[in-house]
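Handout, section B. The chain below has 292 residues.
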Amino acid sequence: MKRFDGTGVALVTPFDEELQVDEISLRCLVEHVIEGGVDFLVALGTTAESATLSREEKARVVRIIAEANRGRLPVMAGIGGNNTSEVVREIEEADWLKDCQGILSITPFYNKPTQAGLYEHFKTIAGIAPLPLCLYNVPGRTGVNMKAETIARLSLECPDIFALKEASGDFAQATAILKQKRPDMLVFSGDDAIVLPLMALGFDGVISVFANIMPQECSALVNHVKKGHWADARQLHLRLSDFCKLLFEEGNPAGIKAALYAAGVIRCNKLRLPLTPVSEILFEKIKKEMVL
């Protein structure tokens, strides 16, 4: 398996004026983040508006990313949902996974399963997945939090679960995860605003939204921490904090798409309903912050 470590970028899915996948912009984005020094690519995550993509579109998005990547970085693709059998079916039928090296799978949403249900869900997926599995815990979006004990149990009983994207924002939980998990299981921050403190605890890096627009700076922050350059890491963290906050002020991926459009990385500032672009006021703030 290609090594997933350091700075991963949760790629947006650019759309054109007709709200179709914009292949030219997506290829440009992949080149932009690779040139910026990220360590791996993540397709079809929350930031990719995957909930609004058809199966055919998902396959096309991964194909475009893989072709633009040209084997330079490992690629992780999101396949998850709140119907375990349907997730299994999608994984088994996704021949485009041949272009990937890992699967990112979110905790089931809306159903609000118990910890036992979460354990059985991911144990089932890990049992059939053709690629290593990264769990994705984001209670702010799904309405359910996967506790440290459940994560640890899965890591110890399912060797193909190699990583966790943790976005609970709970430092006590982050500490418990690090203490209880399988030693070689990687843990990535799912929250750009707290990468530095989580890596100070022992996290291995980030799966970042922010890295879409500032891959060089996000990669530098992670690398500073890995090298023990704490003063440089703190300085960069503080410098990026205001811009990072702006990008999430009216939700994700509205903020990051606005920034990418303003920077000329993508050609249109379009999102699929029920998501909408940021307000004009916020768009102007984002543009102003980008030139400071």
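Note. Residues 230-247 form the longest helix (18 residues). Compare this with the example in section A.
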